[in-house]
Amino acid sequence: MTAPLNEPRPTGPGRPQPDTQQGMRRRNLARVLHTVSAEGPLSRAAVASRIGLTRAAVSTLVDELVRSGLLEELGPERPGRVGRPGSALAVSGRGPAGIGAEVGVDHLAACAVDLRGTVRARAVRHGTNRGRAPEPVAAELGALISEVVAGARDQGLWPAGLAVAVPGLVARDGRTVVRAPNLDWHDTDLGALLPGAYPLTVDNEANFGALAELWLGRDTPPDFLHVSAEIGIGAAVVVDGRLLRGTRGFAGELGHVPVEPEGPACPCGGRGCLEQYAGEEAVLRAAGLEGGEGRVGLLATRAAAGDARVRGALRDAGRALGVALTGAVNLLDPETVVLGGALSGLAPWLLPSLEAELDRRTAGPACPVSVSSLGPEGPLLGAAHSVVRAVLDDPSAVAEHV
Amino acid sequence: MTAPLNEPRPTGPGRPQPDTQQGMRRRNLARVLHTVSAEGPLSRAAVASRIGLTRAAVSTLVDELVRSGLLEELGPERPGRVGRPGSALAVSGRGPAGIGAEVGVDHLAACAVDLRGTVRARAVRHGTNRGRAPEPVAAELGALISEVVAGARDQGLWPAGLAVAVPGLVARDGRTVVRAPNLDWHDTDLGALLPGAYPLTVDNEANFGALAELWLGRDTPPDFLHVSAEIGIGAAVVVDGRLLRGTRGFAGELGHVPVEPEGPACPCGGRGCLEQYAGEEAVLRAAGLEGGEGRVGLLATRAAAGDARVRGALRDAGRALGVALTGAVNLLDPETVVLGGALSGLAPWLLPSLEAELDRRTAGPACPVSVSSLGPEGPLLGAAHSVVRAVLDDPSAVAEHV
C-alpha cells in the first residue's frame, strides 16, 4: 500500500501519469469511502447523490468496499417503505486499523485507531529516553506496538500500517531520523529497528501533531501554522489541508528563526534563535528552576500559583514567540496559529504577550492564535490517523491485500 | 475559461467532485498538449508512448486539439518509410496568446506570448506612477494592452486571457489591489478599470516573477523562495511547483519580517522590519543618495565604480536579508533562494554578506542562493505565461470558445 501520509510525491512533467479507467475507479472508491466516513451512516442512494455518480456506479464501488471489509451494511433502513429498502452503510469498526507510536523524550507510547477514528488499544511507558541508544528504545517501542496490535486483533481489527512520531528531523525517506538533539540521535535508520510486518512511516512529532489538529481539531481551517514544543520548539505549516514538508523534510524549524540577530549562541550554529528565549531550557533557567522530568508541568503549577519569576519567564517567552511568529505570519499568511503540544498547557501565561507582539507588528487584522484541544496527545493520534487517512485515500491498495 | 493561474481552489471534503469520463478527457487533453509543448515536435505514436495511452486514444485527443487550433501538424515525417507516415505535431504558433501587463512604480508594460512561449508583441511606457490615481494609470495600461492585442491579431493570434502584475497585495479574488503603498492605492478594483473582453487575473509582481522563474528560469527546482524588489521587498514561496498564496493572498511579505525586534518603526506598524534595512529607501539613505527615478541603477553604477559608502550600504542590506532569509529557510526548507527583480542587478554587492549570514546561522549545508536570469522582466513574462499555462492545463476550456 502507499505510505500512510497524505503527501503524494509530485510527478514530474517529463513522465505524466496516464488517466485510465483503473485510476478513475481508485479515486471513486476513495470518494465513496470518504463520504461515508464523513457523513455516514448513508444509503447507497445518498452516497450517489452526494458524489454525483449514478446509483449503479456507486453500488459496484460499495460492493467492493464491503467485500474488502472497509464498509459494513447496517441492515435495511426505514423498512416500512415501498420498494427495495436501502441498506445504511457505515465505515467498518472491524477492518483495518492505523497503528501509531511515539518516541518522546520522556515517554514511549503506541495506539491503534479504527477506520471510524476510535482509539481501540493503547500502551504507554514513562521514563526518560535522553542519551539512550536507538536500539533499546526501538525494542521497547516494538514491545508496546506488539501489545497494541494484539489488542486490536482481539477486537477483529488488522494493522494497515505503522506511523511513528519522533522529536527530531526526519528525512523524506520517512524512516531516517537525521537529527534528534534531545535524544542525541543522528542519522538513525529507525525503520530498520522497528517491526517490519506493516508499511512504516517515521515523521517529526510536530508534523503529526499538526495533522491531528487538521483532522481532529475543533474548526481547524485548512491553512494554519501549528506550533508545538516538547523540549525544542517545532512548527508545522499546513497549506490547503496538506503538510508543507520542505525539500529535505526539514520545514517548520521555528525554533531556529532568529529573534535577536546578535543574541546568545545556539547549538544549531546560529545566534539569538527562538529556542534561546522560548525553549524549555531557556524558560526554566529564566524561571530559576532546575531541569528534570515533568518540568513543563512544574512551570504550569508554579505559574498557576502566581510565582512572579515563572510568570515573567513565560511572558518573555511569549514575546519572543510573538516576534518569530510575526515573521512566519508575514511569509505564510495562515488563517490561524494553533499552539499545541506542551505549549498548550502553558498558554494562559504565554498568550497575552505573544498576541500583543503579533498585534502590534502586523498590518491589518492580526492572525488569530488558538490553543489545541488535543494537547500532548496530538502527535500519537496524528500518527495513527495518518495510517487511517491513507486507507481512506486509497482503499484499493488495502483491498488488494485482503 | 478558467482563471489564468495554476491555483485551483481546493474543493472541500463535503462536496467531492465526481470523476467522470468528461473529466478524464479534459485531463488527457492537457497531458497531450503539455507533452507536445515540453518535448515536441512529436508524432502521435511518440505522444502515446510518453503518456501511456493507446495510439487510438491519443489520435482522438490530438484531432480535437488540432481542430481548436492548439496543435498543428508539421506534415509527414520521414516520408520514405513503409506504412502510413506519422505527422509531427507541434504546439501552434497561431492559436491563443497570453496577454501579460505590468503596473510598475516607474513604468507600464504589456506583451503577448504565444503557446510556444515566444513574445510576439510588446509595448512599454516609462514614467512614474507614484501618487497617480488608478483610473488614468489603468487607461494608459489599457491602451498598451490594445496595442499588443492588435499586434498579436495581425500575426494570427487571439487573446486567451489577460494577467496583470502590480506592486502590491492582491486579494484572492484576483482583481482587487488591497494595498500598493508605492502607488498609494488601497482597495482598488483594478479588474473594473481594465478591458473586460478577456478573462482577467491581477496578481502581485513577486508572485508572477516567481512563476516566471519556475517556468522559464535555468534549472529552477520546484521548491524555492523567490525574493524580489521594486521599491519594497517581496517574496514568493513556490512549493512542489505551486505558488503558496496564503489565506488572504498575502503570503510572501518578507519585507515585514522582523530583523531587529526593537529596530526603527516601519509604516506597516511593526519595528525593525527587513524593509527598514534592505528596502530601497533605507539603502539609498545609508548610501547617501537622493530618491528619484532609476535609483537602483544608480546604486549599481556607484557600487561598480567602487563607492565605499554605497558598497557598505549594500553589504548591510545583504546582512539584513541574510537574517530574514535564515528564518524563512528554517520555516520552509526550500531547495534554493532566487534573487530576482531589481535585486538581481545588485547581487554582486548584496550576495557576499547575505550568504555569509545564511551560512553561519544554518545548521548543516546552507541553502544555496542564486540570481535570476530574468531580472526585471520576470513579472511581465510571468503574467503572460500564466495565461499560456492555463491553456496548457485545460485546453478544453479554450476549445469550447473556438
From TrEMBL, chains A, B:
<dbReference type="Pfam" id="PF12802">
    <property type="entry name" value="MarR_2"/>
</dbReference>
<dbReference type="InterPro" id="IPR000835">
    <property type="entry name" value="HTH_MarR-typ"/>
</dbReference>
<dbReference type="Pfam" id="PF00480">
    <property type="entry name" value="ROK"/>
</dbReference>
<feature type="domain" description="HTH marR-type">
    <location>
        <begin position="30"/>
        <end position="81"/>
    </location>
</feature>
<feature type="region of interest" description="Disordered">
    <location>
        <begin position="1"/>
        <end position="24"/>
    </location>
</feature>
<dbReference type="InterPro" id="IPR036388">
    <property type="entry name" value="WH-like_DNA-bd_sf"/>
</dbReference>
<dbReference type="InterPro" id="IPR036390">
    <property type="entry name" value="WH_DNA-bd_sf"/>
</dbReference>
<protein>
    <submittedName>
        <fullName>ROK family protein</fullName>
    </submittedName>
</protein>
<dbReference type="InterPro" id="IPR000600">
    <property type="entry name" value="ROK"/>
</dbReference>
<dbReference type="InterPro" id="IPR043129">
    <property type="entry name" value="ATPase_NBD"/>
</dbReference>
<comment type="similarity">
    <text>Belongs to the ROK (NagC/XylR) family.</text>
</comment>
